Amino acid sequence: MQSPSRTILTGGTLGAALTAPVMAAAAPATMDVTITIPQLKVAEYHRPYVAIWVEKAGAPAKTVAVWYDYDMKGNEGTKWLRDVRQWWRASGRTMTFPANGITGATRAPGAHKISFSRAQLGATAAGDYTLVIEAAREVGGRELLRIPFSWPAKAGAGGRAAGKTELGAVTVAFR
Amino acid sequence: MKKQILGLVATVAIAATAAVPASAHRQWMMPSSTVLSGDDVWVTVDAAVSNDLFYFEHQPLRLDAMKAWAPDGTEVAIENKATGRYRSTFDVHLTQKGTYRIASVADMLMGSYDLNGKTERLPRGTTAANLAERIPAGATNVKTAEANNRNEIFVTVGEPTTTLFKPVGKGIELVPVTHPNDLIAGEAATFQFLLDGKPAADLPVTVIPGGIRYRDQLGDQHLKTDADGKVEINWAEPGMYWLNVTTPQAGGDEGAPPPIARRVSYATTLEVLAP
């Protein structure tokens, strides 16, 4: 890795273009979160409502994504947001819906990758944070996972948690 | 001797009934939700008087005095009212964001008068306004005392607000230190109680978790307000709790009928969510 990198750095215009990713690796600006929604063998299945937010000691929680039935008539899907109950208390109840850049559709079982900039995470200040993922399913259960992280972050894998019921593996990586 | 004792017991029983109306039964309201989200939501409420919480199996709570207030303080309608054999039920349309109050407040008069050598109790439903017509001509030795009862619940759409907690200055009122719609099992909550608008020290506070039918122990907590009228409550389990505050009553012990004294009571149903 060392020598190609050096070569590129001396390579003028081409080098500058390729330097950017290398620099980013040194100081990541993006968090990739992969959330696995488990396939469940149940008679009546509804995709879970999922809220993702960031906590920092002494600061209000910051919601970064909410997956819910946002497209129902009369905004009716918001009626069940309170069932994502820790998120509702930490952050949701102060928000209005749909929330620009935060509201999203519910997701099918499988792995879903979403990415957040440092600003989106509200993590512009250096320090310790916790990413919280909570899922609540109609006629089903509720589960919450926490993944601590720090900023500045190191590139690469940055944390992992695994649910038992309503959430599968959740992994965090920085780039 | 035997006769004497029986007479004594009877006197005590009557005295107790007079001074403590419905003391054996708990008045309660049970809302369908206390923490709500959404733009167009309703709450439906069961209201009853019973021993076991929260099972409607004795008497309905009458809705004559039931009122509701929106977060901005405006009165809103009690809709779809119905009173059945064991319970009343009604709906409130929650069109604003914030904390609503749903309350039944009754200010009554208790008491007695003498007529033709007998002491009679004032009928239920006597108030300062109708006292004159309730007392028959020729009655003497009229004794009255106020009874102020407040039974209320709170429900919140979105973020809890406190606009509605401005005290009216009569009876027992709750002032949130912890908001009553922000209760979580394992987190202690503090409420302040006012009597006639002033912090009320040493008021007995009883807290009972619902679901009595399916357990052997009542699980009741008996607490007292401190010098500032505040009380701290610990919720071991999530669920619905009934909270009751009353002014202490002079006991009718040793056979002497208790003096007719003002009685003030407060009841609310609180939902404690799981963490």
Written description of the protein model:
The complex is a heterodimer of chains A (175) and B (275). Chain A has 3 helices and 9 strands. In chain A, strand 2 (49-56) and strand 3 form a beta hairpin. Residues 1-25 of chain A have low confidence and may be disordered. Chain A has a 5-stranded mixed β-sheet. Chain A has a 4-stranded antiparallel β-sheet with strand order 5-1-9-8, with no helix packed on it. Helices cover 17% and strands 39% of the residues of chain A. Chain A has one domain (28-174): Immunoglobulin-like (Sandwich), CATH 2.60.40. Chain B has 275 residues and is mostly beta strands. Chain B has one domain. Chain B has 2 helices and 19 strands. In chain B, strand 3 (41-50) and strand 4 (59-60) form a beta hairpin. Chain B is globular, with a radius of gyration of 20 Å. The model of chain B is unreliable at 1-22 (pLDDT under 50). Chains A and B meet through helix 3 of A and strand 2 of B.
Distance between the termini of chain A: 17 Å
Bulk shape of chain A: globular
Overall pLDDT level of chain A: 88
Q: Provide mean pLDDT of chain B, rounded.
A: 89
* Through-space gap between termini of chain B: 60 Å
Layout of strands and helices, then pairs:
The complex is a heterodimer of chains A (about 180) and B (about 280).
Chain A: H1 2-9, H2 12-26, E1 30-37, E2 49-56, E3 59-67, H3 85-90, E4 103-104, E5 110-117, E6 127-136, E7 142-151, E8 156-162, E9 169-174
Chain B: H1 2-19, E1 26-31, E2 35-36, E3 41-50, E4 59-60, E5 66-69, E6 75-76, E7 79-83, E8 88-94, E9 98-115, E10 118-121, H2 131-134, E11 140-157, E12 172-176, E13 189-195, E14 198-199, E15 204-209, E16 221-224, E17 230-233, E18 239-246, E19 263-272
Parallel strand pairs in B: 2-11, 11-19
Antiparallel strand pairs in B: 1-3, 3-4, 3-8, 5-6, 5-9, 7-8, 9-10, 9-11, 12-13, 13-14, 13-17, 15-16, 15-18, 18-19
